[in-house]
């Protein structure tokens, strides 16, 4: 029998003040997208996230836009903003110049990543001849420049290029031991994968937070195609829930909301207190999830 008294998801927000959320956005490509971006930022900022982050386009293609967006978010909303940064295809000097640019703009949070080669996600990675070798090397480089809050990536189903769990966890440990403050996970849909990853990390002596990256399913078709490329599996039960809903947007949205709510409720009940929500620059599902986590807008 379920005992509601012992479930964290049945506590009120003031009974779990340690709860933290963050939201991830991508830099808009045109005016229409920019309008949706700001609409979402302005709807989510009053939920007082710990930070919102803005991604860095493949190979640095959004360098200026990422910087412009994080700087404006901080100025416009007062919410702390984190800039993503990748080291693929760039020399150390070029990457360091971007870090100094963030520093000069008052951005003190970086999500430090290796990035993927131009041939695509999962293709072999060759570092730039004068570049950082991987994300761990990049973290060390950022630390040499300044006192940033650094997040790195973690993969509950293993990064496609990690040959074994030992390689995966060793790499995560190198990034955290090298000065990162927390890891944020790739999206996953089986909470068991995340909880087993946590166990593996803790067994290897990793104590830093490993924050689950929650992907609300705005479009099952798009998410399942992206999942295939980045090594996230789509469980059969999840595919079954969205089966036949491509042309039924209302039911699709309701199922997506139920699926995401179920995922965070289970994680809350497992003792998870920090969540990173991938917004895809849309606010409705992120707002609903934040509400389930007990967040209300603060004027
Ligand atoms: C939260 C999050 C945010 C992201 N944001 C962005 C973004 O803004 N822009 C973007 O382009 N991409 C982004 N990505 C994707 C990321 O760039 C890719 O997943 C990339 O393939 C790996 O980056 P990493 O930082 O995890 O690399 P790393 O930690 O360097 O690891 C990559 C792989 O290489 C292996 N490896 C590392 N060092 C060694 C070594 N010395 N010897 C052998 N193997 C090694 C690791 O085991 C792992 O399999 C994000 C991913 C996540 C989870």
From TrEMBL:
GO terms under cellular component: cytosol
Cofactor(s) for this UniProt protein: FAD
UniProt keywords, alphabetically: Amino-acid biosynthesis, FAD, Flavoprotein, Methionine biosynthesis, NAD, Oxidoreductase
Enzyme class: oxidoreductase
Catalysed conversion reaction: (6S)-5-methyl-5,6,7,8-tetrahydrofolate + NAD(+) = (6R)-5,10-methylene-5,6,7,8-tetrahydrofolate + NADH + H(+)
GO biological process, one term: tetrahydrofolate interconversion
Gene3D superfamilies in UniProt: 3.20.20.220
GO molecular function: FAD binding; methylenetetrahydrofolate reductase (NADH) activity
Metabolic or biological pathway: Amino-acid biosynthesis; L-methionine biosynthesis via de novo pathway; One-carbon metabolism; tetrahydrofolate interconversion
EC number assigned by the record: 1.5.1.54
Family: Belongs to the methylenetetrahydrofolate reductase family.
Protein name: Methylenetetrahydrofolate reductase
Organism: Devosia litorisediminis
